[in-house]
Amino acid sequence: MKHPQPLIPARFLRRDNRFRATVEVNGREAWAHVPNSGRLDDLFVPGRPIFLHPVDNPNRKTPYDLKLVQLPEALVSIDARLPNPIFAEAVAAGKLPEFPCHGIQPEVRYGDSRLDFRLEGPEGVCWVETKSVTLVEAGVAYFPDVPTARGSRHLRELLDILERGERAAVVFIIQRGDAVAFAPAAAVDPLFAQTLAQVAAAGVEVRAYVCRVDLEEIVLDHPVPVRLG
Asked: Is 174 helix (H, G, I), strand (E, B) or coil?
């Protein structure tokens, strides 16, 4: 999917709270909205190059959205709202043969949650929950970077769907191109890691894909192995 344009080069200065950062644009400090509630400590380093999208909304206190972080080894998209449209775009384009689909419903209520997708395909229904991943260490992408009770609940609901006789999958969208594998961040959230291993052993599909990210677009690129052991 295409990034909103223009993207303005800037520098990260500090994170003020979960959803606001102070940045430097053309030598002046400004506020930017951070569309991600994760820690992002590995990305948000003072002085690091970033890219912002200006937002023309007089009712907002933050005139920019923080979209991309430039690392020496990769350009990273931090927008946690993007995995759903990235996945939907790839499915609609037929780029994911593992998810054959002739009908896609987003944000479908199940139990106490709204799961991201209900796909209808030639072999029946498949429920999919996507997760945004930005943390990569030594080539391994990790999720989550903060404890997520909501994430564990989604996994249990996928298991319930599977036991009801329908296909279920959790898909980790790695918003950068330098990962060669994915693993749950057990040191951050041992319950999520344990639950992921349990539902995978029962038959819930666990898939991870890296994205190709540049200044024009972010697109799903290729799968990487999932390490649960």
From this structure: strand
pLDDT in tens, 87-100: 999 999 999 999 99
Assess if CATH 3.40.1350.60 describes domain 83-223. Answer: yes
**Alpha-carbon distances, residue 193 vs 7, 38, 41, 201 (angstroms):** 36, 17, 20, 12
Instruction: Just give the CATH number of 8-70.
Output: 2.40.50.580
At 189-217, the pLDDT tens digits run: 999 999 999 999 999 999 999 999 999 99
Element (H, E) at 85: helix 83-92
Distance of alpha carbon 22 from alpha carbon 137, whole angstroms: 26
Q: Where are the domains of the chain?
A: 8-70, 83-223
Scanning the structure block, which residue is given the tokens 């997520």? Answer: 148
pLDDT category at 112 given cuts 50, 70, 90 is confident
